[in-house]
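input
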Amino acid sequence: MAVEVRVDQVTLLGAEEQYGVMVGLRRQAIISGLPHILEDYTVLFEALDVIGLSSGVFLKDRFGQQTDLVLVGRNPELIPGEQDKVAVELVYGHRDNEGQWLAKGTAIGGSTYDDALGRSTSSAHQITRTTYPDDYGEAYGSVPGDGDKRELQGKPIEVRHTWPDGSNTYKDNADVALPEDPDPDRHNRTDVEGVDATDTEIHEIATIDGIFAESTAFTLRAWRKNILGKVNSATWNEGEPRTWMCTTVTSRWHNRVSPLKQAMVHMEFEYKESGWDETHTFTDPRTGRPPAGLKAAGRITPQIAKEFDFAKYLEFLTF
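output
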């Protein structure tokens, strides 16, 4: 008769709550009926393989309604004097940790990975503009009576001054109209001067840590090559196409035993509100600024960075 291996009981040991949210949980399972011949450490492995015991391979076991609590560790220990019994501590933690699985949609052992939780830091960066933004008049709005500012999109930011020729008047402090003094050298001449305008744009750094499971058809090196240094080809993490770039991928082996080789991976993505494609504007070599009346041909935004569909492998749920 085959030896029956079953979970005798599961008891709640303890939990941790912070600010009204459960962030940690510990349970205990008692495994009995293990073969007596397993008298060394292999009995612990045998206990972890029991059908019905929360799996430590995928770390996806949920506890009740706490959907962000996942199994992050299992600690088996032989019960003294009971060679056929093993106590297994089940440790649950928040899903936002290095144990979450990366590579969205990759099925291993019948399990499909969840969207991964990342962390982000946003900041406002000062930038210098010599031309109006391409969304000027849309993002900033138009002032009543000041015309449609969308006509300025892409044009140089400049100020103009027409030097007096004596034909106009101005009012002094007593509101008395007086003739303007003509400029002896530049009267009636209009000069145009370019402006270096200070603007701000949003930058964001998003980081994510997790486990990458490698197979012969899906290697970490290939995954890293596909995503590192690329920009998003489609809307991703609430960013328009070509606004996110994968800037860093670091990894270390977690398990080198086939068929489920695993690596601990840290990834960084940087977001630029204006995108990763730089706009180049023709400048007058005499002034170092865009000339007045710059035409559309005087500005170009080449798409140099290669793009990749980040959502194919990874989704974020960041704040």
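quick obs: Residues 107-112 have pLDDT under 50 and may be disordered.
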